[in-house]
Amino acid sequence: MTTRRDRLREATVREISETARRILVEQGPEAVTLRAIAREMGMTAPALYRYYDSHSELLRHVVGDIYTELTAELQAAIARVPHDDMSGKFMSVARQFRRWSLGHPREYALLFGAPIGGLDPDEQTDFAERCARQFGWTFMALFLELWQKKPFPVPSDDEIDPVLLPQLRRYREERLGVALPLGVLQRFLQCWVRLQGSVSLEAFGHLSFALEDAAPMFELMLQEIAPPLGLTYTPPKE
User: Fold this and answer.
1) Rounded mean pLDDT of 168-172?
2) How far is 213 from 217, CA to CA, in rounded Å?
3) CA-CA distances (angstroms) from residue 3 to 7, 8, 26, 37, 75?
4) Do the Cβ atoms of 128 and 60 come closer than 8 Å?
5) What residues contact residue 129 under an 8 Å CB cut-off, 6+ apart?
6) Cβ distance 28 to 59 under 8 Å?
7) At what angle do helices 4-27 and 55-79 cross, to 10 degrees?
8) Torsion of CA 210, 213, 215, 221, to 10 degrees
9) What distance in Å separates the CA atoms of residue 208 and residue 5, rounded to the nearest whole number?
10) Lowest mean pLDDT among 96-100, 132-136, 177-181
């Protein structure tokens, strides 16, 4: 049973995280300091250490919360598609990923841009990392489901570049723990590079030199990655 003190602490932690995110969105990651957060909340900066051990821990909780929000939206997009419509699931989750990213450019930059100051790169098993893995598993789970229901052609180990082969094996054994052919993992990463790379170019404004609306280019990318997976591309509904 939670006590009143516990509830007050949870509410304060939530307010700190929400304040940090608001500063992030309005002013950018460099502005997310303990002093700025405390000023917004009418607290002192040292008082925040009662809730977070460091600035890095606070930022990583913000990162984790954003990953969790994004994951929930992707899973909701999948849930809106009939269970047996694998093509529809892939198209829906890819489009929702792009939609969220373009609608939350500051948050996207924090998750997928260059590392920012204040985040400890050695903290690999903390809240943010767990949330990031849950996000990644949203896409991997779709690949697993598709592979189990309707295996698609993949290269054999002998056909995989010898530089990639040990890296894929290490990824499978140390990160996934799932018995999958290495060719499936290569195909997964190929698709992820295309999807996330396409979204990043658009989210960071690197296509504006040529395109005012990159949506058709994104759809061309989906058309190209669908056939190797045995999926059927369908245009988005108007």
Assistant:
1) 94
2) 9
3) 6, 9, 35, 26, 33
4) yes
5) 123
6) no
7) 90
8) 0
9) 51
10) 177-181
DSSP 8-state assignment for residue 183: H
Which residue in the block uniquely carries the two structure tokens 């190929």?
190
Contact (Cβ atoms closer than 8 angstroms) between residue 171 and residue 184: no
pLDDT tens-digit readout, 42-77: 888 888 888 888 888 888 888 899 999 999 999 999
Quick one: angle between helices 55-79 and 86-103, nearest 10? 140
Alpha carbon distance 55, 38 (integer Å): 12
CB 202 within 8 A of CB 218: yes
Q: Please state which of the ranges 20-29, 54-63, 124-133, 217-226 shows the lowest mean pLDDT.
A: 124-133
Burial, 122: exposed, middle or buried (Cβ in 10 Å; 0-12, 13-18, 19+)? exposed
Those residues whose C-beta lies under 8 Å from the C-beta of residue 26, and which sit 6 or more positions away, are none
SS3 54: coil
Q: Using an 8 Å Cβ cutoff, are 44 and 38 in contact?
A: yes
Span between the terminal Cα atoms of the chain, in Å: 49
Hey, what are 39's tokens?
Answer: 């000023």
Rounded Cα distance between 166 and 2, Å, is: 49
State which amino acid sits at residue 50.
R
DSSP annotation of 3 reads: -
* Length reported for the chain: 238
